[in-house]
Amino acid sequence: MIKFKVLLFGVTRDLAGKSQLDIELEEGSNVKMLLEKLGSDFSRLSEMKSLMIAVNNEYAKPDHILKEKDEIALIPPVSGG
Amino acid sequence: MIKIEETHIDIQKVIELVRSDKAGAIDVFIGTVRSKTAGKNVERLEYDAYDSMVIQEMQKIVNQAKEKWPVEKIAIHHRKGTLQIGEVAVVIAVSTPHRNDAFEACRFVIETLKKTTPIWKKEIYEGGEEWVSPTP
């Protein structure tokens, strides 16, 4: 298993009630699996449309494999400007 | 040239950053906080930002603009934290040799920023608050 923290921002931080989550996944897990795990652990997140994952400050595709030292963030729809 | 400001954006300073003897035009976009959204009276906005990724995404936008137009310089300053009505949330300044490119490149920067940059705003209005969904 690999353990890592997922940074939360905006609406997802309010939904989870904290600014980061501790997540454990099997080695070799990808971004899609992480999103499924987050959705099952936090049902209110699964109701959200178009959640993205950033790995080391870059938007990551669903098949991107996660590694233990990665900086991972959950990116809800952005609304800057 | 790219900066997240916690307290105040100095518009003139951002413009000065893009001055160039090779530029005949500077186009400036200023985004400000308005008091009404969808019939609600907004009291203030709270901006949240994933700072390190914001800088990286903005740098990508600058690089893309420089590939598409003959840009001299681009500066982007964006606020985070609490903003009152009328406050400046973002300033984008673009200098180019001729004006048409400055207008087009500046528009490209703000439109792309709104789609890709990890910044979120929450509207605090009379009787509630809500994270803003993206608008076209």
Which terms summarize this structure?
heterodimer; A: 81 residues; alpha+beta; Ubiquitin-like (UB roll); 3 helices; B: 136 residues; Aldehyde Oxidoreductase, domain 3; 5-stranded antiparallel β-sheet; 32% helix
Strand percentage of chain A lies at: 25-35%
Question: Which geometry of chain B do the CA atoms define?
Answer: elongated
Specify Rg of chain B, calculated over alpha carbons: 15 Å
**Which fold name corresponds to the CATH topology of chain A?**
Ubiquitin-like (UB roll)
Read across the widest sheet of chain A, the strand sequence of neighbours is: 2-1-5-3-4
Name of the CATH class of chain B: Alpha Beta
Mean pLDDT of chain B: 96
| CATH structural fold name of chain B | Aldehyde Oxidoreductase, domain 3
Helix content of chain B: 25-40%
CATH superfamily of chain B: Molybdopterin biosynthesis MoaE subunit
**The top level CATH class name of chain A:** Alpha Beta
- Please tell me the overall pLDDT of chain A: 92
